[in-house]
């Protein structure tokens, strides 16, 4: 029996090339180097990559479709198998596609292994999913590597604010000093501000709590810290002391707001020798867990999409809330905190409770797709047995 040949590439494809003066000749545009020796259909079978090596090609192996390393957590489904001959060697190739069918082609079988791809996040540099009830980490990526966390830092500021509010010496209606020139300038700054301290207005703890929480106001966070401890420096020491009391081994703070000292210096609120707050994903999740368990009102407040304080609109940037782009009804997301600086990248701490499951806390740090990957992480965490009631 003669060996069958690959479509469009087993015979040399002839291209017509003009030589000028009306004289033409033909020559192969693509040499036929692969031939089909045998072919069979397969029951749809799941595979995933063995390593970062390998690529998917079109039929005929003349054009690369995709590198496996750019699809680190993709499950590929094979529906056909062929043995191809190339020079003096033979190889088994699989016809594969991803789940959506947006990427498909042929790949040497040795680059894949059977089974669905293990769960993973492509973009986050650090991430954690934690069972709020037990404190158990159900999935992680670089869980104990401390890195800048931007406005996620405000979770600690909010915790210490709520801690003081719940003492006999303080209340929500206490007026906070906001007449600092640095804080006023910060509020008026396009890059570092957003919430303005208007002259003559007396801001309460509750108003600044919402400004810091929902709108991620930096000057509100610093003002609350000064209200809690008397000065910015004393408050940052309290932040670190609280982290130590929780036995957080990968957490250090130099800022109540999450802004880096390189930005705070011009406003007179730089502190310490390090440039940024650095906390590991696991320790961020633990801070969030303490906040939720000790002061559960943050979950209720975290669902507020927008609110006005002193005529200023506070916008909650959590895009997993109802009506937002990445909302998924079954996840019941009701918090918690976004963050961004160029140094920290996009950060997000999310929480939600799926029906019949424990509440989950997720953390993604330095992630260009923070809401998409949070949603994937929450769905994965909820499948874990430890998350069931």
Overall body shape: elongated
- Unreliable stretches, pLDDT < 50, 5 or more residues? 1-31
Q: Indicate the CATH topology of the largest domain.
A: Beta-lactamase
Rg over C-alpha atoms, rounded to the nearest angstrom: 28 Å
The largest pleated sheet is described as: 5 strands, antiparallel
- Structural category is alpha+beta
Tell me the domain tally: 2
Strand content: 25-35%
Ends distance: 63 Å
Helix content: 10-25%
Q: How are strands sequenced across the largest beta sheet?
A: 8-7-6-3-9
* Residue-averaged pLDDT: 91
| Count of DSSP strands | 21
H/E element order: EEEEEEEEEEEEHEHEHHHEHEHHEEEEEH
Number of helices: 9
User: What is the second-level CATH architecture of the largest domain?
Assistant: 3-Layer(aba) Sandwich
Please name the fourth-level CATH homologous superfamily of the largest domain: DD-peptidase/beta-lactamase superfamily
CATH class term of the largest domain: Alpha Beta
């Amino acid at each position: 029996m003669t060996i069958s040949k690959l479509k469009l590439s087993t015979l040399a494809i002839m291209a017509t090339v003009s030589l000028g003066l009306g004289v033409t000749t033909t020559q192969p545009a693509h040499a036929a180097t692969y031939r089909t020796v045998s072919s069979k259909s397969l029951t749809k079978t799941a595979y995933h990559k063995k390593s970062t090596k390998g690529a998917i090609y079109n039929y005929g192996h003349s054009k690369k479709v995709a590198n496996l390393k750019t699809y680190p957590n993709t499950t590929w489904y094979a529906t056909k198998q062929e043995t191809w001959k190339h020079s003096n060697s033979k190889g088994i190739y699989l016809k594969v596609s991803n789940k959506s069918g947006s990427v498909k082609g042929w790949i040497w079988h040795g680059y894949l292994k059977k089974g669905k791809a293990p769960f993973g996040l492509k973009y986050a540099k650090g991430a954690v999913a934690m069972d709020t009830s037990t404190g158990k980490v159900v999935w992680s990526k670089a869980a104990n590597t401390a890195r800048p966390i931007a406005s996620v830092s405000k979770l600690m500021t909010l915790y210490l604010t709520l801690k003081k509010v719940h003492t006999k010496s303080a209340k929500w209606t206490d007026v906070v000093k906001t007449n600092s020139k640095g804080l006023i300038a910060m509020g008026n700054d396009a890059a570092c501000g957003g919430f303005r301290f208007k002259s003559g207005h007396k801001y309460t703890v509750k108003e600044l709590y919402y400004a810091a929480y929902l709108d991620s106001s930096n000057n509100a966070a610093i003002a609350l810290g000064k209200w809690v401890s008397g000065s910015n420096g004393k408050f940052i020491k309290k932040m670190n002391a609280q982290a130590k009391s929780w036995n957080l081994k990968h957490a250090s703070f130099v800022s109540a707001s999450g802004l880096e000292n390189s930005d705070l210096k011009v406003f007179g609120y730089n502190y310490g020798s390090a440039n940024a707050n650095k906390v590991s994903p696991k320790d961020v999740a633990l801070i969030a867990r303490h906040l939720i368990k000790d002061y559960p009102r943050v979950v209720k407040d975290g669902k507020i999409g927008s609110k006005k304080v002193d005529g200023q609109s506070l916008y909650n940037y959590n895009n997993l809330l109802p009506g937002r782009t990445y909302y998924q009804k079954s996840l019941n997301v009701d918090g918690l905190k976004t963050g961004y600086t160029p140094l920290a990248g996009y950060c997000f701490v999310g929480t939600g409770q799926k029906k019949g499951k424990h509440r989950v806390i997720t953390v993604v740090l330095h992630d260009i797709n923070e809401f998409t990957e949070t949603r994937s992480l929450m769905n994965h965490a909820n499948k874990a047995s430890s998350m069931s009631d």
